[in-house]
Amino acid sequence: MTSETQQTEAVTTETEAEPGDLRNLIEGARVVLWDFDGPVCRLFAGHSAERVARDLVDWLEGRGLHGLLDESARESLDPHVVLRAVDRRHPGSDLVAELEERLTQEELKAAASARPTPYADPLVRTWTAVGARLAITTNNSPRVVKEYLTSRGLLPCFAPHIYGRTQELRHLKPHPHCIQRALNATGAAPATALMIGDTPSDLLAARAAGVPFLGYARNERKNKVLREAGAEMIVGSLEPVLKAVWAAGQA
């Protein structure tokens, strides 16, 4: 098992959030909503998301269904883009259900080689220990999330609050549906929650739900994308978040 704090890659992005601002954000959070792929782990670290997207496109084309995808979807490197493109044409169909199950199976394969985000494991445990409630709000399959968290011994820190992809694909982020489910289940007011995410869709979903947002950007490219989307607080590592949670818990 990988060490909880072992760096899995070079992170060049400096922490943009000031320590005082970060601590204020953390101290106001009674419920912490985590995106999964990114803040918790790199799901496709050893099982390319780009290849999964191509395989889904090839599967559709092999059935003469290439017309369901426009050029941008066919060339996408994101399997969720392919899935949503088909759902827009045939919402709730058996075809969409089969395509979603194929993606879930690929995500389950990826979970076996997923890399924990540096400092994520101890941060999850520390935040739980100081009394915060944690939830997963993700576009990935909840089956995949549970399998990964179980492998890391983290499932008790989140269960039963795991809100992932459902058959209603129109509810994928940036729609705030999964965030609203978490808020309703935990009884938390939006202002007392905090969303940690690494994509503009995470930011937009949090904003739509009225939940404060902390961006996680493991490299300069992700930092730039989040900043351009309007994220005001971004960290390039979860280490300062861990330190702030620890300090708040000792206060």
Structural description of this entry:
The protein has 251 residues and is an alpha/beta fold. Helices cover 48% and strands 10% of the residues. The protein contains twelve helices and eight strands. It has helices at residues 19-27, 49-61, 71-74, 79-89, 94-111, 120-129, 142-151, 155-158, 177-186, 200-209, 220-229, 239-250, and strands at 31-34, 41-42, 115-116, 133-137, 162-163, 193-197, 213-216, 234-235. The chain has a six-stranded parallel beta sheet, sandwiched between helices. Strands 2-3 form a two-stranded antiparallel sheet. 43% of the residues are buried. Mean pLDDT is 91; it is low at 1-15.
Return the average pLDDT rounded to an integer.
Answer: 91
Helix content: 40-55%
Number of helix segments? 12
Going by helix content, strand content and strand pairing, the class is: alpha/beta
Largest sheet: spatial strand order: 5-4-1-6-7-8
In total, the number of strands is 8
Amino-to-carboxy terminus distance: 33 Å
Encode the helix/strand succession as letters: HEEHHHHEHEHHEHEHEHEH
**Multimeric state:** single chain
Reported for the largest beta sheet, the result is: 6 strands, parallel
Q: pLDDT under 50 segments (min length 5)?
A: 1-15
